[in-house]
Automatic annotation (TrEMBL):
Record InterPro entries: D-isomer_DH_NAD-bd (IPR006140), DpaA_N (IPR031629), NAD(P)-bd_dom_sf (IPR036291)
Pfam families recorded: 2-Hacid_dh_C, DpaA_N
Residues in Dipicolinate synthase subunit A N-terminal domain copies: 6-101
Protein name in the entry: Dipicolinate synthase
Molecular-function annotations in GO: NAD binding
Annotated ranges, domain D-isomer specific 2-hydroxyacid dehydrogenase NAD-binding: 148-236
SUPFAM superfamilies from the UniProt entry: NAD(P)-binding Rossmann-fold domains
Length: 285
């Protein structure tokens, strides 16, 4: 086994950027599950078993699995089953991955393996929120015929993404309203100078040019959507199944843009750097 060697198995363009960046830092990096992609700079291609034999640190994708049975390998031509054999290969290694819960259900051996979930880290969540906000504004700029700086925007939800998004929109000159439910959120919304809106009465009084939904619950029901003008752009950033009744929106003629996993799509290199930095922090600790 090579000490301070990394094995990157599966994932999308984020993991490619991660592998190349770690290699640029002077570490030996092996990769598996990227045969559909161009050659990775400074990274050695390897078969899964060979990679596991030589690497002391393994990096799995985000999410590790989408179906609970195979590794998430959108850039690989062969499926990698998550079974006893895969878990056995990971023994005596440090294994990092994103959203690991479904992986643990594939073998009892994972109870004996040193695993760490980088997606659970706050620094990754905050930086991913900023990348998501940037990506959603890019979508808005392409879809909205006017200038963002003169638009009326509603940010539904005041979590990490909502905070980053409202800040960026105001920096562009937009008139920003933010919806929330908790009194402490209203206090911060007012301190930052945004227009506060109660989520329970969203879109009842004001009209907006662009709405960004970050709430992972069905907030934009038929009743709410019926009060929204048909030229409003609604960008849904909430995780599946989203926060918009898409069937009702279609019937009402409202343009809804689902925008999941924006860091990986809009800024894969930056997202890969975020994952790398988080893994480095976890290793130092």
């Amino acid at each position: 086994m090579e000490w301070n060697s990394f094995g990157v198995i599966g994932g999308d363009q984020r993991q490619i950027a991660l592998a190349e960046s770690i290699a640029a830092d002077g570490y030996t990096v092996y990769a598996c599950g990227f045969d559909k992609a161009a050659e990775l700079k400074g990274v050695r291609a390897a078969e899964l078993r060979d990679l596991a034999l030589v690497c002391d640190t393994i990096v799995l994708p985000l999410p590790v699995t989408r179906d609970g049975q195979h590794l998430n390998t959108p850039l690989g031509s062969e499926l990698i089953p998550l079974d006893e054999e895969f878990a056995q290969l990971m023994r005596n290694r440090r294994v990092f991955g994103g959203m690991m819960d479904r992986l643990y259900q594939t073998s009892e051996l994972w109870q004996e393996i040193d695993t760490r979930d980088y997606f659970a880290r706050e620094e990754l969540a905050v930086r991913n929120a900023a990348l998501t906000a940037e990506g959603s504004i890019e979508i808005a700029m392409k879809e909205y015929p006017g200038a963002i700086g003169k638009s009326r925007c509603l940010v539904a939800g005041f979590g990490r993404i909502g905070k980053a998004l409202a800040h960026m929109l105001r920096g562009l000159g937009a008139k920003v309203s933010v919806s929330a439910r908790r009194p402490e959120d209203f206090a911060w919304i007012e301190v930052y100078g945004y227009e506060p809106v109660h989520t329970g009465s969203i879109c009842q009084k004001e009209q907006y040019d662009i709405i960004f939904n970050t709430i992972p619950a069905r907030v934009f029901t038929r009743r709410v959507l019926s009060a929204i003008p048909t030229d409003t752009i609604l960008i849904d950033l909430a995780s599946a199944p989203g926060g918009v009744d898409t069937e009702a929106a279609e019937k009402l003629g409202i343009h809804v843009i689902p925008a999941l996993s924006l860091p990986g799509k809009a800024a894969p290199k930056a997202a890969g750097e975020v994952i790398k930095g988080t893994i480095y922090n976890m290793m130092e600790e």
